[in-house]
Amino acid sequence: FNNNLNQLIRNTKYEITSIMLRLFINIFILAIIASVQGFIIPKPSLSLGQPKASSFATQLHSDSTVGTETPSSSAASSSSSSSTPPQTVDAKEAVKIFGRLAEKYIMLDDSGGMCCYSACSDCEFRLPDGGYKMADQSAARPKWIPCYDERKFVSVGKEHVSNWCTRIFCTGPSVTKGEFVERVKGMSFSPPLGGPFVSASSAGIENDFALEKFFDLLAGDKEKLTRFRMGKRIKELGNGSEGLVWSDFIVAMTD
Q1: For the segment 150-203, what is each residue's pLDDT rounded down to a tens digit?
Q2: Residues 145/164, Cβ–Cβ less than 8 Å
Q3: E strands along the chain, which residues?
């Protein structure tokens, strides 16, 4: 009986040792996996509720559900933004504006009328290249958008009020973008010198984009355009000339 009892005790110790060894091996393996993946084994909860999810599982779920953009959606949004080219001003739409604002007559330099035009070599009223200073100029078709609202040359008895001054600033010294657009659209059109030909019958402005851009060129970041600023900006866009011609106008509108 003693021999059987001793044998049973030895077998029991062997089984317990074997179970403890396997448990230790399993814990060691889990520790290695946790160190590689950042997986934190939750501590047993003493509460009767469900055990808390591991930080690794929580982070994995959060990354897969919050702020995630699939490659297909990213590519679609990128394709959508790149497929829409910026709107540009068509030359025919620009000439509809120029033909409303340009004029056949412009006043230039009040000293021009004081020259005797006899080709004097030391004449103070001649230009550096030998040309004559002109008091005013005329053209067969509208050619210039004057940089002034009103100009008087007392010495030669001439004065001129620009068309844009009387038609755009008819109620005050400033206009909003909406007022500017509507008043320019209401001005009469004549085929100007320069630009593609557009007949008066087909010169209606259906799209306000070009007019709104011209307003922005003149007003800058201001909500209203003043009469003084319009004249100043026209001279700047015309590179210092007294009138804005088509070649400078279209460059400014398409830049």
Answers
A1: 999 988 889 999 999 999 999 999 999 999 999 999 999 999 999 999 999 999
A2: yes
A3: 105-107, 136-138, 145-146, 150-153, 158-161, 174-176, 224-226, 243-244
Residue 249 is predicted with a pLDDT of: 98
Q: Which helix (H) or strand (E) holds 82?
A: helix 71-82
Q: What span, in angstroms and rounded, lies between the C-alpha atoms of 103 and 47?
A: 91
**Please, what is the Cα angle at 18 between 20 and 6, to 5 degrees?**
115
Length of the chain: 255
**For 209, left (φ over 0), alpha (ψ -120 to 50), or beta?**
alpha
* Residue position matching structure tokens 């851009």: 213
What is the longest distance spanned by two Cα atoms in the chain? 152
